[in-house]
Amino acid sequence: LPGFYEALLPAGFLTTSGGTFQFQATAGSQVGAFTTQVVFPTPLLQWTNQAAAATVTRSAGLPITWSGGSAGTYVIISGSSSSGSASGSFTCLAPVAALQFTVPSYVLATLPASTSGYLAVGNETVPTSFTATGLNYGAAIGFVDYSINAAYN
Questions:
Q1: Environment class of residue 84 by beta-carbon count within 10 Å: exposed (0-12), middle (13-18) or buried (19+)?
Q2: What secondary structure letter does DSSP report for 58?
Q3: Cα angle for residues 144, 148, 83 (degrees, 5° grid)
């Protein structure tokens, strides 16, 4: 998209203590040069029951627990499974301050039983706005994401 910039940081780049990272872009044909920053919280989001979540009992609901994360934001919990010609997915949001959320059994019941699914837990930073010639609005956002293979029973 014109005016869309993305920078992916390598796995392990961020430490659990977070930090402030500056990003600069040179001018392009439609958007001028800019400098902005992304502030990752201290501590970063940590998915604390990741191993237990690898096997999902759809009829029981799925408890997810975490620590850390960007104050005033949400934890994004998503998953999917597929089996034969059936597939399904879900996304739930929970306030980061809650430190826990249970994906309801009625949501999980819509997914097919499968040993080939995924589960992810993530958190976005608070957006930092910036200006550049050619942009109506500029925002820099960081995202921390954990993803595992999951079996849905």
A1: exposed
A2: G
A3: 130
Distance from C-alpha of 103 to C-alpha of 60, rounded to nearest angstrom:
9
Instruction: Give residue 11's pLDDT.
Output: 78
> 120 CB contacts (<8 Å, ≥6 apart)?
76, 77, 78, 79, 145, 146, 147, 148
Residues 6+ apart with CB under 8 A from 53: 47, 62, 63, 64, 119, 148, 150
pTM for this prediction: 0.87
Handedness of CA 90, 103, 52, 146 (dihedral sign): positive
- For 15, the token pair is 């430490």
The pair of structure tokens assigned to 28 is 């392009």
Q: Which of 69, 63, 34, 59 is nearest to 140 (CA)?
A: 34
Q: Which residue has the tokens 């934890």?
A: 75
Q: What is the pLDDT of residues 49-75, one digit of tens each?
A: 999 999 999 999 999 999 999 999 999
Residue 108's Cα: distance from chain center in Å? 19
Tokens of 1: 């998209």
Instruction: Using DSSP, state whether 11 is helix, strand or coil.
Output: coil
